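Q: I have 453 residues here and want to know how they pack in 3D. Can you give me a structure?
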Amino acid sequence: MEKTVRHFLDLILEEATPLIATLNKGASDAQIADFEKAMGVTLPPQVKTLYKNFNGQKQGDDVFFIDDLRLIPLEEIQQTQQQWLQCLQKTPNWETLRFDEEEAIDMYWDGVIKNQFYNPRWLPFLSSNTRYIFIDLDPDKKGILGQIGELELSLDSIQDSFMDIINDSIEEWLDGLIEDLEENFTYYDAQRHTLIDKFVFDEENAIPNIFAPSPDYVSEGGSNVYNYSDKDQSDFVYPDRSCVYMEEICDHFEKHIGPIDSVFHEILSEYVHIDVHWIKPSADRPYHVLFTTGMSDYPMYLPEGLEDPNSYSHAELMVYLPADWPISDEAFKDDDNYWPIYFLKMIARFPHQYKTWMAEGHTIPNGEYAEPIANTEFGCILLMPPYLSAPSEFLQLHTKDDTIINFYSIIPLYTEEMDLKLNEGVEALLDLFDEYNISEVIDVYRKNVALDD
């Protein structure tokens, strides 16, 4: 930890010189002992090392530590806790309030941080008004002593406050900050007098529903063909919303397809937060159904001039797998089992990552050269509504806020089938699917309908 702190100080001396001048000299062993006695806590060794090097920031300076948060000296932590309490005490019976359990699960702190709005053993070391980043000395059963949490209070409605888990330790937090500074993901803003995280999402940076790019060319079969590369990616963002339509989507699937057994939660999200839900086989539906939620959290980037764009702006994906397909966290460690889930998540994220759209008949090759997928000979994915395996009223969901969500099944194609679709159109391919009874349920041994017998 000592080496990490020194590395950080050297870095901000060069990159954020005004910040150095605001840091207090390190706390002595006696000061730390007095703090621990007064608070009734024992600080983790890493925390002691940090405060021995610099004991927070001076009061009165208009220079902040990061994102307008001030680094709190040991002697002000108890006072900061009192301010925290005063905010809560404006709400009657705040002690009985709890965060929504589903939200806690989605944010991955359920069972890690205790579900409450205040704990005297949460030590805020970064704070600004109603936002507190704290050292957790009383973790929940799955938590780690000394982990770093964040709580942002909503004064208008305490129930709308935000809780999150940030790191497992103060050293891990500082290592992350160092890495972000070195990669220029975090920088010192001379006008705001604070380190700034480029990827803290705000309304000004919200992803707009701009037009999708023009196709690179149109194939003989009438398909628009796009060639994407790293230069086409939108700027990296952490999603500022998740599970916008999850409840309505899950209700829709349970109404038309079957009961949801479980969900595979995404741990780290880029652009959008994608979860995959699992409906097990049944007597009248002898196959697994897995589907995404999160792709529809944001609208896609639609082509200019598209008639009735609201009918195409939002989508979710699904896949049908045979009843004997291994499905579990352990099974998914094997790419031969995991690849359908990989493509669900990759394609669900793709339109937000590359400012484009996904719709019926779109094909996505596995890499530039449509390389074989896992242990199969497939090289491409086709998106189609599940016309054969779901009732017609399932294909679109009209949400309570009048958003239309389309559901597309992923269907793997052989490279020759992809070429046939590009050269002759998707209808020619679907006619052959009908001829050979190809359904949405994935069969890795099925016939390649583009090859002659």
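Q: Anything worth noting?
A: Residues 217-435 form one domain. The first strand starts at residue 70 and ends at 71.
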